[in-house]
Amino acid sequence: MMERFDIWWNGLSGLLKVLYCIAFPSTMLLILQTLLAMFGMHHGAHDVSDTSGLDMHTDVGGHNFDIGHDIGGHHGFDIHHDVSGGHGDIDAHHSGDFHDHSINDNVTDTSMHFFTLQTIVAFLTVFSWSSIVLVGSRVPSLAALPVGILLGIGTMALVAKMVQLSMRLAENGTVDLRNAIGESATVYIPCPPKNQGMGKITMTLQGQMMELGAFNEGEEMLKTGTKVVVVDVRGDDVIVEKDA
């Protein structure tokens, strides 16, 4: 078996060897991504994540940039600037933690992203295999490679659009808690005054009957059955006041 492979491999031109070295890994990654999407193993607010675990680390002239994005919906940015002239260090860290709740309190980004892990893998797969077919059909490499690149770019655009549509579908299926602001609700578990504890309210939001954690910034206890109005959102909970 290995003998046959060696004979086949040694009979390839240098260009075809490079194309096969691109085609095999990218195809495996594409199959893996497809299986993960089919079996729902992508984490986060939608099935197909935007970068699916891309991580970038750059160190240029004493400037250290570390950018990470994981598919769980956690975004981290760490920037470290070291000035050697005794001016000290400047550190900045920003992190966002999006919790997996039935209420999604963050805004889903539904814009189309052209350069993501999915689109890059799709480009490499289509570019390499289409170029292999063309070169194998005795099309000159100067013509085969540009055609492969164009087909790859077209596939990138198609995949980016599919990801955008899937994100919009996911967003339409989630409840945006900010839509509760200004809506009426009924106290289910009493809400202590001056944010001394959390109560519960029931309300209809986006066509669904929901029970939400509620804080009361007023001076009096909001007892069970009291009619209230949602005035603000705090994380996955709301702030209410007595309905006038």
From TrEMBL:
The chain crosses the membrane at residues 12-32, 114-136, 142-160. InterPro entries: NA-bd_OB-fold. Keywords: Membrane, Transmembrane, Transmembrane helix. The keyword Transmembrane applies. This is NfeD-like C-terminal domain-containing protein. It comes from Ruminococcus albus SY3.
